[in-house]
Amino acid sequence: MAEQTTPADMTAGLPADISTGLPADMTGDRTPEKPDSAVVRDALGVGIAVGLSGFAFGVTSAGSGLTVLQTCALSLLVFTGASQFALVGALAGGGNPFTAAAGAFFLGVRNAFYGLRLSQLLSLPRALRPFAAHWVIDETTAVSLAQPTRRAARIGFTVTGLSLYVLWNLTTLLGALGAEAIGDTDAWGLDAAGPAVFLALLAPMVRTNTERAVAGIAVVLGLGLLPVLPAGVPVLVAALAAPAVLYVEGRKAAAKEDARPGDTRNDTQNEAQREER
Hints:
The chain is an all-alpha fold.
């Protein structure tokens, strides 16, 4: 009979963050501490860099016909840059308000999936979760997941969320007030600042062939469907790249397991075939 492999055997010898998918301090294993100052520095860098792009949103929103009050309310209450840009972009293009809102909603759905991951990672007290949920966005998620411990993840989430929220809303106000003076935002390229920073955060985290495959397929799906689907929907379809690649990888792993010499399943199948003959 072939030797049985247990889940414990499969993860033996792996670092805690790889074998469980959690920071090492959440599994009881020791891990090198990252200085709080380093976490704060990285989080502030992201918060400031992305927060400045709120100016572009303020200009774009005011240029699409929204008032300064409406523009600032979007940043204060919605606070998810891509959805905000999708909404005002659709309105500026003459789109129906309900269609524009639906596209922004679909684009913002991704934050719900971020929240599922961060709720386990941060493990915040119940009283703080409703407030923290408002800051669950691309940048806070990326910074939190990049930290080695729960403490560092909490600091990164808080500093990134606070600095980005304050700066984004301040620059939104300035952009809305100065919309007439700045002119065409496309000529300045300000709307590309946020995505550029997020891509810079993600690039170092894409290391394995599986991760590269997911990223590549997601880009192809997102860009390929952009001209034919409503705003926000291509992003959701692109998210299907992850389960699709993982499914293929799982089938490959299962096929290799079935092909192992001495596998009891192969022995059983061969015996059944001989009995049929």
